[in-house]
Amino acid sequence: MINYSTRSNLLTEGNDIEDYSRLTYRKLLEETCKFANVLKSKGVQKGDRVAIYMPMILELPIAMLACTRIGAVHSVIFAGYSSDSLAERVLDSKAKVLLTTDGAWRGSKLLHLKAICDQAMDKVKSHGHNVESCIVISHLRRVTCPPGNTSDGGKTKNGTSNGSSSEVNLSWDDDRDCWWHEEMEDADSSCYPVWVAAEDPLFILYTSGSTGKPKGVLHTTAGYLIYAATTFKYVFDYKPNDVYWCTADIGWITGHTYVVYGPLANGATSVLFEGTPFYPQNDRYWSVIDKYKVSQFYTAPTAIRSLMKFGDDLVKKYNLDSLKVLGSVGEPINSEAWLWFYYLIGHGKCSIVDTFWQTETGGHVVTPLPGATPMKPGSASFPFFGVLPELLDEDGKIIEGEGEGYLVFRQPWPGMMRSLYGNHERFQTTYFDKFNGFYCTGDGK
Asked: Do 39 and 4 form a contact (C-beta atoms < 8 A)?
């Protein structure tokens, strides 16, 4: 039996190349318990919603796991959203607590996350809801400011001299705002988990809203976690001593399932990456793979196509021989990008898993399996275990053989969404009314 508490780690790679660390599973449990107790001290109870708006730092999965430990429902909101988008999601979920950082560097750009949260909380309050606590991580003071950049200067919230170019002015409400590190200082590192039922809510994740009001996709506890763990294990063929890296932001479903829950449920050593593929140079991905000897690498076709433009020499500087499985997610991958990925990055020896799935599905529903599925550039190939897809025409008739139509699923699977938060009627009409008896993905013609 593997002792995950000592052999498995979260490897963090910050925006700056000198900002990296390692957290064992044992330490992750301690930090999770401590923050769970902080949340309880703020009055958070089972079923309460906690909104999280922060960059890809260790505190993000810690906060998510702390919520699950006490039965609270987390709602991670992508830290690139505007204050209006943040406010809309906080208001819809009626979040009791908001977690954020003082700011973050995204490449060479400084993001004023606390200021965005302040604007959002004001908008939420004007609509009749009050965020009771805003817990702020002092992130900028522990990271390096990119060369040639400075911040606002002046005084920091606690009145110390702003000698660092990574500190910013913060507005502060003493009745609502508090520092993460101050709250954690005396928190107990033991927190007995709150027991929940299999169908109790685990998290809410809002869609982008590109087709109207954002939909609060609701996933529940047991089925989602089983599906996340199972798809991770088989789709990436993860083995002990492998090092896995998914580049997705946790603000999206890929980050939930294949950065946090899937890898952790399998005791995986994985990389948590805060930066961009292009900072400080356009070879950042390849340098990280070489540095940590990554064996499974999961990224988006958009990133692959962007990196292709910089030529092959940037890739060839690094040793990528550790790679065994390459993954594609988020959109269809064109044949040219697939072949570049396969031959240059994978040296023609890696399986490519071209995965199709959605926020609503919770995990992969159509995907190759490494070493078991014949690979075809640009094809997601076959359904995952227990998933029964069909292709329907406009009249709901099954299309036999090749054709164009609507992709639907005939039966449920463990990881599928259970509802849209606060609007089950919209859930029914959006996904099930078009074709009676089928889940409609919305993809197809």
From this structure: no
pLDDT beyond 60 at 152:
no
Helix (H, G, I), strand (E, B) or coil at 331: coil
What is each CA distance from 92 to 63, 85, 129, 214, in whole angstroms?
Answer: 20, 11, 10, 9
Averaged pLDDT score across all residues of the chain = 92
Q: What is the mean pLDDT of residues 50-76?
A: 98
Q: 263: which residues sit within 8 A by CB, 6+ positions away?
A: 232, 238, 244, 246, 270
The pTM assigned to this predicted structure is 0.93
Return the half-sphere exposure (C-beta side, CA atoms, 13 A cut-off) of residue 195. Answer: 0
Tell me the two tokens of residue 293. Answer: 């000897």
Q: How far does the chain reach from its first CA to its final CA, in angstroms?
A: 49
Distance of CA 249 to the CA centre of its chain: 4
Residue 393 has pLDDT above 90, yes or no: yes
Q: How many whole angstroms separate alpha carbon 257 and alpha carbon 225?
A: 8
78 burial via Cβ count (<10 Å: 0-12, 13-18, 19+): middle
Token readout for 61 is: 């999965």
Taking residue 319's Cβ as centre, other Cβ atoms within 10 Å add up to 12
CA 256 to CA 60: how far, in whole Å? 11
Q: Are 76 and 96 in contact (CB under 8 A)?
A: no
Instruction: For residue 145, count CB atoms less than 10 angstroms from its CB and return exposed for 0-12, middle for 13-18, buried for 19 or more.
Output: middle
Structure tokens at 204: 């809410």
